[in-house]
Each structure stands twice: as structure tokens, then as C-alpha cells.
Amino acid sequence: LSSNRVAHGYIFSGPRGVGKTTTARILAKCLNCVKGPTTTPCNACDACVTISQGSSTDDVLEIDGASNRGIEQIRELRESAKYAPARSRYRIYIIDEAHQITKDAFGALLKTLEEPPPHVVFMMATTEVQKIPAPILSRCQRFSLRPISAELVFKHLQDICRKEKIKVEEAALADIVRFVEGSLRDALSLLDQALVFSPDGITATTVRELLGLLPLELIQEISGIIQAGEPAPILNAVNDAVKGGVDLTQLAKDLQAYYHDLMLTKAGVEDAFKVNNPAAKAKAAEIDFPTLERNIRLIARLLDDMRNSETPRALFEVYALRLGQKSMDPRVILERLEKLSAQAPAPAAPAALPPQTAAWRAPAQATPAWSKPAPAPAVTSVPTPTPDMSGAPREREVPAVAREAAPPAPVVSGANDPQSILDAWSDFVADVAQTKMSLGSALEDARISIENNRVVLTFSRTFNLETFQRSTDVLRPIMSRHFGGPASLDARLDKTPPKATAAVPAAAAPARPTPPADTPDSFVEVKADELNGDAQRALKHFPGVVKKERK
Fold it and tell me: Which of 37, 74, 269, 366 has its CA 20 to 30 Å from the CA of residue 475?
């Protein structure tokens, strides 16, 4: 209007109640005002008054696109557009719900939009602009109207109540604004209904009853029972709610909105309605962010499941019990594990027994079978403990006197001496298992041997080999205690089971079952460098393989 560049076609799109038709009327007044075209219509002349009242029947025509959607109605519109305006500057057509016009009718309107008479302006309002054909969109100026901010709607309702001298609680207005989600028309309609429902004054309780929302006190009570986490009170609370006629779907929605408000309050997000609620702040301080986030996600899943469930009450009760379970964010667990790993002191060497107990010291305890290395090949192996038929491990041939004098965790000097490493290997594996069970199990799978004067660990499973390779920080201090310093160990993968040696009878040492080799399935392994940061951190503490489904 300021630059005198008035188009012949406009499209106003956006959600309901945000002012599409109102904007079209304002633009029509700007064009047809006796002082116009102007950006400040007088609102006093005949054109302005009739347009504001929606009573203009000659030059500004408002058409309902839902009831005038056929090709015959559009043809009549085209014929009437040929005539000059009776009293005003422009002949203006405001078409509401324009997306409901049929495809053929839009085709008939297209020619008029391409070459309109100079005195005609079309204004179309729609909530579904994607249904307007592209040729129509390309010939109109399009304006997308956003939902009105909650602050503006709240302030506007406050101004109306003050001018009309209506007694209303701010919490009641806040509930109305939350419910309409940016639609001012819906907000004004609800305010009128609330005034009829409660003429002596609008309260939060009456508004919640009008909107079908549950009383806030009930929501707070049930939330507190869920937070306590006791199954019996939770199920009794749900039962009492059902007996009281509470709709469980509405209860779930209100609980989700309640947790959302607590999360925003806890984060210090400014209240758009300027309603000070000390109780909400105190409640938000009791629940941490991960719990609030989990509760909102669980309730969203509950609402989705309840739509297709034949037993919504049972489903609600199960989810209510899950909401009451204590949980911790996996990221917090990883952070604690990392701190513990960094702060964990090396296990202290066993204290020497008092002199008076030396006479009755029992022989050294045999290391449990799960922490023993597997039998080594005959060519390069050194005899290691092997289980007998009863499951008890067989120890190396060591004189009884020497066994009695040996300390439980001997420290062997010479970290680079392969034979010294072999001699201390059983105790080393047992010590590793006490520090980290998964790593001890991985070392149990290894066959230890000497090749070219080097100690070689042969693993039968990829998982155990990777566990060993990732555990340098854990192994280094234990090696220092047992081998006198970091030991040089070679590791390799060999999935073929070891051959039985002639030195051990088959009956006395049955072949150890070899884990089955990886077989093709519907999942494929994901490389470590392709995982996100949290998954990589988790693998450091829970060694494993991440797989995804094959496409």
C-alpha cells in the first residue's frame, strides 16, 4: 500500500483463529476507504463500517469456499467480476476455506487471476495451503500467518476482562491460553463460555471443568504417589480415579502437561503468563531432569498405545508402575564409571600371615576353572592347569613344601622373560578377573604359548580379542605386580579348536567346548568409529559388539 503496488490476488494461510479473514477485511478497508488507498483507514466511512461488520453486499463480497466450491459458482463469480464496483474503488472477493474449491473450479478461476479486470482483487484464506493448486499459488501473493504468541493472547484476555470488569483468576486465563495453542478466536470463545458457566467470577477450577481438564490437585496427588514408587498405592490411586469417573486418557494427557510444566520451571524458562506458582517450583526441585524427560516420553508412548489397546486401564497401570521405578540417565552412569576407573587404586598385595599361623597355612587355593587359560598346543605350549572330569583344576607339579611357602600372589621378576610370564599366568588371570570380570573371562579363552621367544595369546573369539586390546589401562598395573613390569604379549585370532595333546589322556581332560564361530545372520557389525560418542564410551566399560539390522 505504501509503495502503491497492489496485487490482484492474495492468499492468507495459517492455523485456525490467527486472523486470516480479519487481515483480508483490514486490507479491504485500506483499499476502499474514502481516504484510500491508505495504511490507516478511517473506520468511519460507509465502506469501512460495512466491511468491519461483514455486511457489505455489493463491492466487498465474502464467499464461503466450502459451500461455493463447484464450477458453476465460480463461473457466476467470474461473470460478476466483469462489472465495475458500485460505490467503492475496488470490487473485492474474500474467499474463506479456499482449499475446498474443486480442481475444476480452480481451473475456471485461473483465467480471471491471470488477466483480471483492474478493479478486481481476490483474497483467499485457507488453513491447508498445500491443497491450493500450484498455478493458483504462482499468481497470488502469499502470506503465512503464525499462531499468536501465548504472551499476546494472555495480555489481550486480561485487557478484555479489565475493560468488561470481569473477575477472573490469572491461572484460569493461563489454562485457556494453553488450551487454544495460539488461536485468539478460540480463546475469546472459551472466555465467553467460562463467563456463562461462572458469571460470578472465572476461576481455574471452573475453567478446567469447562475444558474437560482434571483438577490440578488430583494431578499433583497422583504424581506424588507415582514418584514414591510403591506399587500398591499407585494401583489403588488408579483404581480410585476410575471409580471417580476419571478418563484415563485425559489423566495421561494432564500428567504429561504437568511434567512438562515442571521441566520448564526447573530449567528457569520464563513463564509466558507471569503466574507465580511456588508449589510448582518446590515440586520441580524434587525431580531431576532425566526423570522428567523419561516420564514425558513414557506418557507419550502410553497415549499412542492406548489408542489401539482393548484394555487401556491395564496398559495405564503398567505404565504408571514404570513411571514410579527409579532410573538413571545412561550418560550419568557412564560418567560415574569413568570417574571410578580413573580413581580406582591398584589392589593391595596380600598381607603376610603372622608368624604363629605359618605352621598351619593351607596349600595355595587353586584358581577357579573359569579363570584358567585353555590348554596350549603341544609344540609350543607349557603345561597349564586343566580341569579333570570332576571339574576341579589340576595344578602344576610343584613340591608340597614349595606350595606351602608360595605367597598367594607371587611377584615374578623379569617382565620380558616368556617362561616367567607362563609360570605366573594362572595367578595373573585370577587377579585380572577380580578387577574386571569380563576381561578375566576373555583371558581364559586365550591359549598361551611361546613362539620365537615371545609369549603369544591365541583367542578363539573376536569379542575376547577386542576386549583384551581395549584393556591396556587395566592390565598395566596388574602386570607390574605379577611380572615386575609391563609384559610384551602378542595377540592373534584363531577360531579353529586346539588339537588334543598326547600328554593328557582324553578321559582325564575332556576337550573344552569351543565357542561357535560367527555365523551370518540378519545383523551386521557396526565399526567403533561409526558409533556416536555415548556408545563409544559405553563400550569402554561394557565390552561388546554393536550390530544393526541388515537392509
Answer: 366
